[in-house]
Amino acid sequence: MSTPDCLFCRIVAGEIPATVVRETPTTLAFRDIGPKAPVHVLVIPKEHYADVATLAQDDPGLAGEVLAAAAAVAEDEGLLGDGFRLMFNTGAYGGQEVFHVHAHLLGGAPLGPMLARNLA
Ligand code: 5GP
Ligand code: ZN
């Protein structure tokens, strides 16, 4: 179901432009507007789910399609050899800002430690 005030639903609907790098019947991958690495692509299901937990619980098959799309983009972008990071920010502690589930695909350079600070 499309959510009209959701930024990424509006990108899926073509109402907001995006640099699309891969599209399947159920997923869309497009470049992040504020890239944090030489390659920074967002991979989303076209259908609206707020976060990865909701998506995985309600439609695990679609969650798998998002992962498969991310892997295909990683291959297209030449990231399989040197590696990459795939990340779902979730909720307040995860720093999620857009509440339409999206995988961040990051690569093209060494990405450093997983977290800026060690919280343990
Ligand atoms: P979050 O913090 O929710 O995990 O990530 C949201 C991401 O969406 C951020 O990396 C941000 O740069 C990206 N973003 C926000 N608005 C837009 C937009 O209009 N177009 C694109 N392509 N990316 C966006
Ligand atoms: Zn949405």
Automatic annotation (TrEMBL):
<dbReference type="Pfam" id="PF01230">
    <property type="entry name" value="HIT"/>
</dbReference>
<feature type="domain" description="HIT">
    <location>
        <begin position="7"/>
        <end position="116"/>
    </location>
</feature>
<protein>
    <submittedName>
        <fullName>Histidine triad nucleotide-binding protein</fullName>
    </submittedName>
</protein>
<dbReference type="InterPro" id="IPR001310">
    <property type="entry name" value="Histidine_triad_HIT"/>
</dbReference>
<dbReference type="InterPro" id="IPR011146">
    <property type="entry name" value="HIT-like"/>
</dbReference>
<feature type="short sequence motif" description="Histidine triad motif">
    <location>
        <begin position="100"/>
        <end position="104"/>
    </location>
</feature>
<dbReference type="InterPro" id="IPR036265">
    <property type="entry name" value="HIT-like_sf"/>
</dbReference>
